[in-house]
Amino acid sequence: MSAPADARGAARTGGGYSRPARKDHRSNFELYSWFFMRISGLFLLFAAVYHLVWWNLIVGVEHLSADLVRERWTNPFWRLFNVGLAVFAMLHGLNGLRYSIEDYVRGPGWRVAVKTFFYTIILAALAWGVFALLTFDPTIPARPA
Amino acid sequence: MASAPNVRGLYTALRYRGRTGMWTWMLHRATGLGILAFLVIHVADTAAVIYWPEFYDNTLDLYRSPFFRVAELLIFFSVLYHALNGLRIIVQDFWPMVMRHQRTLAYAAAGLTGLLMLPVAWLMLAPLFGLAEEPGTERHRLRMDRSRENISTFQGPAATQPAAVPPITGGAR
Description:
Structural class of chain B: mainly alpha
Distance between the termini of chain A: 63 Å
CATH topology of chain A: 3 helical TM bundles of succinate and fumarate reductases
Mean pLDDT of chain A: 88
Order of helices and strands of chain B: HHHHHH
Helix content of chain B: 55-70%
Low-confidence stretches of chain A: 1-5
Number of helices of chain A: 4
Order of helices and strands of chain A: HHHH
CATH architecture of chain A: Up-down Bundle
Distance between the termini of chain B: 67 Å
Oligomer: heterodimer
Number of domains of chain B: 1
Strand content of chain B: under 5%
Strand content of chain A: under 5%
Number of domains of chain A: 1
Radius of gyration of chain B: 25 Å
CATH topology of chain B: 3 helical TM bundles of succinate and fumarate reductases
């Protein structure tokens, strides 16, 4: 679909274009998306870097095990922290992927198909991860004793 | 809505002589998509600890292979660069005056990432070559000692009531 002639708004003195008049839709979605990327980004700046430092540099990948993860998850704070980390990271990534798809996939039909494909995978992984964290019960041993 | 798409190949894209802004943008996007790809796998397999801890332990064997150890370092780099460059973008958005120094700030984000990656690369790669101990070896040893003292490994608090299960008659178990 080609853009209407006035899609860019009026030319400004000194270069650039003023904000175009909204005609096709009235939605602040892109504004909220822009804002969400910055808020979640600031959260992830600390949470994701902490997560990497803790598991890679303090615990060590060699020492990881399901038992160790389960021990960590007995504390509700760390379960909640992981829910927050997963939700913010996945939605931040999902929105970033949306920017990329809209940049590279130009056909409207293809766009829907590619978005559906990736959104399904990402949201399924997120739902499974959050489900696991919220339903985790430390009193139920993973293996029969 | 974009104007008429003018799609060219990767070669044209790489030949385009953009300066720092183009390179930081490309690196920001590439690291972001790379993190997302890993994140989906990572969340899905870590969640398996609730039902299938053996499966999780098996995937860890994969993560411990030399190829994945290098990939993990790449993920560490990606997160660190994406974080610091993202911070630069946020500062520039909310404080437009610093746009005058955007090139300096772009170099600062990349430089700080590189600087921080030096000790991180040592900590994560040196154990592969036997040059240093795996991070957390002392913690791990203490934990193993503790679990040996407690005889069994961690199982969580004891269940309050044993479930009423009828005895299994016959069969190998």
